[in-house]
Amino acid sequence: MKRRPELITPATLDVPAYATLALPNGVNIHTVPCDDCSVVRFSFVFRAGTAAQSVPFAASATANMLCEGTERYTSQQVAERLDYLGSYFDVNVDRDCVYISFCSLSRFFAETLDVAEQILLHPTFPEEELRTYAAKRRQRLEVDRMQVDVLAREELARCLFGEEHPYGKISPESAYDTLRRDDIESHYRRFYTAERCFVVCSGRVGDEELRAVSRIASALPRGSAAETPFPQACTRHESRIVREGAVQSSIRMGRRLFTRMHPDFTGMQVVATALGGYFGSRLMQNLRERNGFTYGVVAAMVNFEREGYFAIATQVGADATERAVEEILRETELLGREPMPAAELDMVRNMMTGEMMRILDGPFGIADVTIENILCGTDNDVVERNLRLIREITPERVCELAARYLRPDDIVRVIAGPGDR
Q1: From CA 173, how far away is CA 154, in angstroms rounded?
Q2: Which end of the chain has fewer surrounding CB within 10 Å, N or C?
Q3: Which domains does the chain have, with CATH numbers?
């Protein structure tokens, strides 16, 4: 008779420490080497996200326009050159930061770095390319905002932080029509500076590669590291957006809490996982398995640099909207009223541990975690500390956290869908 292998859950996660090289202009280069692979990835992280922009869409446009023309290459030449080398260039923009990554085979590192230098230090932001970019982005945003889940996501941000707060401000599509080249150049000059940048290198990073990346980082101009003051967040607890013709409602619920540096953040991640962090979670069992309201529901803690919040998201049939909201509140109250069974908490621990192992699989995953830890002001040892907190948390502690932070009156409720039926 065949027997299933015994389940082994690791008690520790050994995440390599990163080495740091401080350059004279203030840029720190952090390296997480892995000599077993034949690729190199270097990521430039700029605190230049949408919360910093003074003109709508300037942050994302600046980041995405970097490769649309440089002093030596046209946008087509940039694309063809990277494609020929088998290298890739990736840009991600969030509320706080812009992440610009280059990845290449080790033997094509020098050639890839040549293109990277042009993109990072010598973009020209051609007017014709900007108008094409803006037209495409406006059209895409108009299409996206026809979907109820996009409307609900944006409205939740407005409700949590307020329409004038950088984390809650949502710009109209028409702002793309007035976006100017000067706006992009101004954002680039102000925020793509040494004081607002750090670099993380991973893969096969030797002395030669480190010197080459240092040469580019050293050329970043000095600027100001002063943070723009944020207005106080202003929370609105309920909102409904009508999208006529929609057959589903998108439900977003949550509340402002705290950043990852708060001592209860990891505990609230356990709470979120128990509610909606895996297929067998409480909300999945309720909304999908027992009631058939939805295909899926998720709950998570969201971390920004200056704020953090708890959120639940799902889409349900329009006729089940109110009942789904009631069941979500019922499950959050139950978790804060009765300690969960030990077997359920073991499952949650195993799911969270497995997810941590998945994220840390390979040098690039470790590099991504390193970037997040640097932004939070911690080192990679925090992964081991968080794992220990997860393994030591008790059902009573989970119950206490849910009761403290998920009171029904504190939860913001947003619904986007058809009108009353």
Answers
A1: 13
A2: N
A3: 19-218 (3.30.830.10), 238-417 (3.30.830.10)
Strand 297-303 and strand 308-317: the pairing is antiparallel
Per-residue confidence (pLDDT) for residue 7, from 0 to 100? 64
Confidence of residue 361 (pLDDT cuts 50, 70, 90): confident
Residue of 202, 230, 167, 191 whose CA lies nearest to 63: 191
| Region for residue 178 given its phi and psi (left: phi exceeds 0; alpha: psi -120 to 50; beta: otherwise) | alpha
pLDDT classification of 420: cutoffs 50, 70, 90: low
The Cα 377–Cα 42 span in angstroms is: 20
> 390-412: per-residue pLDDT in tens?
999 999 999 999 999 999 999 99
Cα–Cα nearest to 112, from 78, 87, 79: 87
Encoded amino acid at 421, one letter:
R
Residue 115 has pLDDT above 60, yes or no: yes
- The whole-model pTM stands at 0.93
